[in-house]
Write a structure and sequence with these properties.
S-adenosylmethionine-dependent methyltransferase activity; seven-stranded mixed sheet; globular; 10 helices; transferase; Rossmann fold; alpha/beta
Length: 266
């Protein structure tokens, strides 16, 4: 998962608690939408811990899945979690994918694009390694809108500390909106570009199930939490607990939205 800050990602267990569990529920909806025939060759760019690759193996009957990521820690987690048959995981950069031209029926990516410094280069590389007529698709969180797990966090954080916006992907990642995503894919020369919302609910049985993943240090919001002293962190925790919609048993229900793109190589 190449990023502008190479220290942003690295702890696979922390990532799983923070975002991986939600990505696992988005990924099947995404692959179902792509609707590739069995026997396809897939490449998962910025594969992380293997969330999307695992879904492809479970639901799409692929001939092969190749995962590419810059983090050896994430790659080791993916290798340990997924079967060796039909899969391989290699270290590499999304902006210079270490695979030959016209190699895959589908080049896909989950929750990575906004962390890549040169987004156009990444999508162009995905198109390069996909065959003519092949699929290029990805999904990103709706950071500025209905990804409420993070939107609520940063709305509260910036109300207490305006510098929290320096970590807010809703501000820092304008690409994660339908218009800019579609324009990027069209600019690269991809055809039949479609963008759609994928929505799921996020249920937390109690506040700590929501809060504790923000203390893991992996991701933008956890990095912000790590930058605070104990007093400021406790104040943020208190304000979040007051602001979040809470049921009679302490349960919290939020909405999660990802923006997904599907396109064809001309």
């Amino acid at each position: 998962m190449p990023t502008q800050d190479q220290n942003l990602w690295g702890a696979s267990d922390a990532y799983e608690r923070y975002m991986g569990r939600w990505s696992r529920r988005i990924a099947p909806l995404f692959t179902d939408w792509l609707n590739l025939a069995p026997g396809a060759r897939w490449i998962d760019v910025g594969c992380g811990t293997g969330v999307l690759a695992s879904t492809i193996l479970d639901r799409c009957e692929p001939a092969e899945v190749v995962g590419v990521d810059s983090s050896e820690t994430f790659l080791n987690s993916a290798r340990a979690a997924l079967p060796r048959q039909h899969t391989s995981f290699i270290q590499g950069d999304a902006q210079a994918i270490p695979q030959p031209d016209d190699s895959f029926d589908a080049a896909v990516s989950g929750l990575v694009l906004n962390f890549v410094p040169d987004k156009e280069a990444a999508v162009r590389e995905m198109a390069r390694v996909a065959k003519r007529g092949g699929t290029v698709g990805l999904y990103v969180w709706d950071y500025a809108g209905n990804m409420q797990v993070m939107r609520t966090f940063f709305d509260v954080a910036t109300s207490l500390d305006p510098q929290a916006s320096d970590y807010d992907d809703g501000v820092k990642a304008p690409i994660c909106r339908p218009g800019p995503l579609k324009q990027l894919f069209q600019r690269v020369g991809l055809g039949d570009v479609e963008v759609r919302a994928i929505d799921i609910p996020a249920a937390f049985p109690h506040f700590n199930d929501y809060w504790l993943p923000f203390l893991g240090g992996t991701g933008s919001a956890p990095k912000y939490c790590s930058s605070l002293d104990d007093t400021a962190r406790d104040r943020l925790r208190h304000e979040l607990q007051q602001r979040l919609p809470t049921g009679p048993e302490g349960e919290i229900l939020l909405a999660i939205r990802a923006w997904a793109v599907n396109s064809r190589v001309r």
